[in-house]
Automatic annotation (TrEMBL):
It comes from the Bacteria. It holds the Pfam family Ribonuc_L-PSP. InterPro entries: RutC-like_sf (IPR035959), YjgF/YER057c/UK114 (IPR006175). GO terms for cellular component: cytosol. One of its GO terms (molecular function) is deaminase activity. PANTHER family: 2-IMINOBUTANOATE/2-IMINOPROPANOATE DEAMINASE RIDA (PTHR11803), PROTEIN HMF1-RELATED (PTHR11803:SF58). SUPFAM superfamilies: YjgF-like. This is Enamine deaminase RidA (YjgF/YER057c/UK114 family). Belongs to the RutC family.
């Protein structure tokens, strides 16, 4: 498997992700959108920061179960239930200082949305990996 991450000339600089991720792989892994739910099914405490930490843990568990690592991630979409750019930036910073950080060097999208699926849910991340 090969993953090539590039930022072509003529596109704006990025805060860490790459505009283009080219993959040649035998296996693609699609994770369901990972929510801030604990193994018990309860929503994680700690507001946006605590929920983001739970999502990070959940993604790491799911990737490991699939035989993948954060470095195998080729696409992420991050949903934050907030119109506040500072909150979106805080989630981006937290993700990029976590053990999951290598996942966010690939093609990535960060969105502020009106609401997510569970009552009180503030963050969800969709992940695709390649092996």
């Amino acid at each position: 498997m090969t993953i090539e991450r590039t930022n072509p000339d003529g596109l704006h600089p990025t805060p860490g992700y790459h505009h283009v991720t080219r993959v040649q792989a035998d296996t693609l892994i699609y994770l369901a959108g990972q929510c801030p739910l604990q193994p018990s099914g309860d929503l994680a405490d700690g507001g946006l920061e605590g929920q983001t930490e739970q999502v990070i843990r959940n993604i790491l568990v799911a990737l490991e179960a699939a035989g993948a690592t954060p470095g195998d991630v080729v696409r992420t979409v991050i949903y934050v239930a907030s119109p506040d750019r500072e909150e979106l930036a805080a989630v981006w910073t937290q993700l990029n200082t976590s053990p999951l950080a290598p996942a966010f060097t690939s093609a990535s999208t960060l969105l502020g949305v009106a609401q997510l699926g569970f009552p009180g849910q503030l963050v969800e991340i969709d992940v695709t990996a390649a092996l």
